[in-house]
Amino acid sequence: MKPSFAFLLPILGAAMNAQQAQEKASLLYPYGVDEHDHKNPKLDDGTSKKLSLAVPFTFYSKKYQTLYVNNNGVISFDTPVKQYTPDPFPLADGRPFVTPYWGDVNNVLGGDIFYRESTDPTLLARITDNINQYFPKIPYTATWAFVATWDHVAYYGSTSNKGNTFQAVLTTDTKTSFIILNYWDIQWTTGVASDGDPETGLGGTPAHAGFNSGDETNFYNIPGSQTEAIINITKTSNVNVPGRWVFQVDDFKVTGVPPKVAVSNNCFL
Predict the structure, then answer these.
(1) Is the peptide bond preceding residue 56 cis, with omega within 30 degrees of 0?
(2) Residue of 23, 120, 163, 204 with fewest CB within 10 Å of its CB?
């Protein structure tokens, strides 16, 4: 009789699930109901209410005291963003915002958008350790953070179960500001209204990731933005951590990007 290894399958499955959960926790900062996060409404092209911050956040030399968490993968500082098909940076209308993954999210079909302000010592200590590792020449101790997480969010017109999970973290010590972008699971790039395929979530005008200062001069497009390659953002990084991009944004600097991709006017492609 041939030996049966069927009894090992549940054990191996549990071990793989545990490893995956550990890897997810190492990339994403804690989020969700257990962290007392707020949730955006289930609404296509929806946004949070206007959120007042406990401390000002400096972005491209300007201090902002309010922001919006927009369902379509954008954190904006002046006005909400309901636009679902991304435009390349710089934007002609001068809207200042950071977009971890600007695409046509529809959380009515699946997923949630969480956010919170935090001065939790454990969270701030972890952020501080990370920033000190990536920017060893910049003295930094985080005193505040804002964590926004898109958890397994679906795309507009989806006929699949695909979902994207990504996160944006704003942090400051009141003088120096950083943004951390984390990409855990990216399964789609495009909603149907942006000419994407309803079954695959691919094609059309793919999602965009980066920053726009609002001055038409300072901006950054993460490589692969608005191309099919953006689906591989979980494998790219500027700090040698796959799926993580980190930027100093008070006086904007791009870290870890090869010089050959730099062009004029502080624009990087």
Answers:
(1) no
(2) 23
